[in-house]
């Protein structure tokens, strides 16, 4: 049984047979007929109360769960409409909003400010799918999954999916409000779909899928094997580069850096491969190593103006 701190799971299994067994043992020991009758009456009363209690609890929890589901659905509709002020209004005054590998946003007004910054984006789809809800008094923790499709200002479309955990509290004994919301383990579906669009005999595809599912070591083994079989598989720099950016957009740091690194090893004469690797390194704060990659890129292509600007800025 899973028991969360501060929360309890209430069992509705009253096991009445054990209750009567306890009473009968007591009656046998007392040996008084009148007393036995009295105890049986008390046992029946206790049993009745227990049954009523066991029936009421599930209905109460079910009703509360439905209330939270309706509130979550209302949240979805507000996000879909772009009514961000109303979305912020569903959070408590000192609420916390946090995404994976992101700094927490604390306070309703700060959350409102963050949401208003998305005014240029158009939400095409936003749906949450609640899985579990744990109750503790006038508070509850709900977890589930979500899917959203957003068209950003430059016209690109983002397709994201992941899990969420929301802590709800009932303010003034009436409205359910969000105390904390945490989104994590998100995936960029559009970028994942790009990998799947490549032919199966693409070495870049097989390397990308393997590194995401089984890690860098296994991916390197697959790469070594496939490179030996160029009659059935092909190697393309542009595909490695695009997959590197795809994995980078998924938030997979180590996997993305490894893909860009491998691309420079496979195509050591490509200025673009080193430029992309330098960009990825810089994104994660590896300034010294990023400078080396940009220097290599500019050396291979003196016309790489972007690389020159980056180096000038970093020095």
Structure description:
There is one protein chain. With 315 residues, this protein is an alpha+beta fold. Helices cover 56% and strands 22% of the residues. The protein is built from twelve helices and six strands. The protein has helices at residues 16-30, 33-81, 84-88, 108-116, 189-197, 203-214, 216-227, 237-249, 253-266, 271-283, 287-300, 305-314, and strands at residues 91-99, 105-106, 122-136, 139-151, 157-171, 175-188. It has a six-stranded mixed beta sheet. Strand 4 (139-151) and strand 5 form a beta hairpin. Helix 1 packs antiparallel against helix 2, helix 6 runs parallel beside helix 8 and helix 8 packs antiparallel against helix 9. It is elongated and about 95 Å long. The two termini are 58 Å apart. Residues 1-31 have low confidence and may be disordered.
Distance between the termini: 58 Å
What is the oligomer described by this structure?
Answer: single chain
Instruction: Average the pLDDT over all residues and give the rounded result.
Output: 81
The main sheet comes to: 6 strands, mixed
Order of helices and strands: HHHEEHEEEEHHHHHHHH
- Describe the global form: elongated
Give the neighbour order of strands across the main sheet. 2-1-6-5-4-3
Helical fraction equals 55-70%
Number of helices: 12
**In terms of per-residue confidence, which ranges show pLDDT below 50 for 5 or more consecutive residues?**
1-31
Count the beta strands: 6
Structural class: alpha+beta
The value of Rg in angstroms is 30 Å
What percentage of amino acids are in beta strands? 15-25%
């Amino acid at each position: 049984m899973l028991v969360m701190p501060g929360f309890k799971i209430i069992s509705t299994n009253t096991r009445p047979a054990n209750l009567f067994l306890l009473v009968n043992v007591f009656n046998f020991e007392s040996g008084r007929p009148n007393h036995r009758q009295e105890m049986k009456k008390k046992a029946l009363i206790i049993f009745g109360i227990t049954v009523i209690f066991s029936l009421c609890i599930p209905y109460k929890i079910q009703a509360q769960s439905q209330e939270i589901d309706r509130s979550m659905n209302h949240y979805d509709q507000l996000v879909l409409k772009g009514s961000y002020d109303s979305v912020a209004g569903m959070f408590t005054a000192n609420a916390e909003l946090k995404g994976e590998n992101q700094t927490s946003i604390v306070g309703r007004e700060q959350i409102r400010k963050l949401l208003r910054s998305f005014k240029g984006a158009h939400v095409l789809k936003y749906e949450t799918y609640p899985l579990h809800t744990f109750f503790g008094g006038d508070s509850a923790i709900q977890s589930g999954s979500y899917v959203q499709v957003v068209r950003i200002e430059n016209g690109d479309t983002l397709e994201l999916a992941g899990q969420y955990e929301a802590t709800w509290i009932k303010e003034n004994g009436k409205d359910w409000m969000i105390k904390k919301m945490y989104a994590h383990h998100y995936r960029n579906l559009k970028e994942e779909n790009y990998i799947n669009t490549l032919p199966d005999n693409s070495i870049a595809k097989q390397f990308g899928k393997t590194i995401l599912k089984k890690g860098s070591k296994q991916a390197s083994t697959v790469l070594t094997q496939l490179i030996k079989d160029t009659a059935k598989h092909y190697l393309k720099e542009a595909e490695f580069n695009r997959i590197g950016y795809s994995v980078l957009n998924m938030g997979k740091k180590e996997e993305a850096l490894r893909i860009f690194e491998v691309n420079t090893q496979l195509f050591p004469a490509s200025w673009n491969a080193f430029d992309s690797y330098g960009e990825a390194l810089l994104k994660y704060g590896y300034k010294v190593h990023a400078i080396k990659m940009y220097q290599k890129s500019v050396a291979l292509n003196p016309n790489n103006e972007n690389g020159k600007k980056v180096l000038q800025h970093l020095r």
